[in-house]
Amino acid sequence: MTIAETGKKARQLRPGIHLLVNRGQPFKIIYGAGKWQCYTGMWLFSDYIATQLDGRLPGRSFTLADALAWQSPQYDTPELLLVLEKLKANVRHASAPLPYYEHKACEVLMLILRNIHYEDCWQKHRKTRRKNYLTYYDRTYIIKVKEELDRNILAPPSVDELAVMVQMSISKLQHGFKLWYGISIAGYIREERMKYALRLLWDDGLSIKNIAAMAGYENASKFTAAFKRVHGYSPSYIRKSFGL
After folding, report:
1. Reported confidence tier of residue 122, pLDDT bands at 50, 70, 90
2. What region holds the HTH araC/xylS-type domain (predicted)?
């Protein structure tokens, strides 16, 4: 799937949560020929934001323009994915009244703003100590490591291989990754796999054991424990909540 906006370079979307801030300019969503696509979309208009949020955020205001500065780690999270998947379930079954969807839209905004607040606090904390300093080259290598993980999150390189790739010691790589992204390498891999697994729950032709194997787990019990650690609920519970 590709998004093409007037005056901007087209961007291809990988599986995940993506943000499009549009100010009335034409845009296109392009689907690959012969490929089945499924996604959940939420459109938030400036008048809704003004009605819901004006005067409700202590010490600050919020406008649609603020969203231009949002980064994917602030909105492409397991928690937001679960909210959107629940929305998809209710849309498919037409099982909720309009106020439910309004509440969920506000919940999405609040979760993003909370994540931004946490990130601001984390950035301030890491700047208070010399050992938390990352050079420009350190940051470049850390970002390269994340890109390598994203390319093959289901069978990622080992930490040893990643360290060799960017010519850093294992301890420096692990410390730098957590410092920059606020999560360990192992934790990031687990979260991304569990986000992938959450989407697979929609396929009722797959058993939990099948999904565990597809997410890189040989043991279904360990998969369930990891899934619950990330999403807060077991895979079977969430599947039932989807009405499957």
Report:
1. low
2. 143-241
On whether the CB atoms of residues 104 and 83 are closer than 8 A, the answer is yes
Pick from 19-23, 156-160, 178-182, 215-219: least confident: 19-23
104/88 Cα distance (integer angstroms): 11
pLDDT for residue 120: 67
Query: What angle separates helix 98-126 from helix 46-53, to the nearest 10 degrees?
Result: 80
Domain ranges of the chain: 2-126, 197-244
**For residue 103, what pLDDT is reported?**
85
- Check if the beta carbon of residue 235 is closer than 8 Å to that of residue 197: yes
What sign does the CA torsion over 185, 122, 197, 233 have?
positive
Radius of gyration, alpha carbons of the chain? 20
Tell me how far the alpha carbon of residue 56 is from its chain's centroid.
25
How far is residue 201's CA from residue 208's CA, in Å, rounded to a whole number? Answer: 8
By CB atoms closer than 10 A (0-12, 13-18, 19+), residue 161 is: exposed
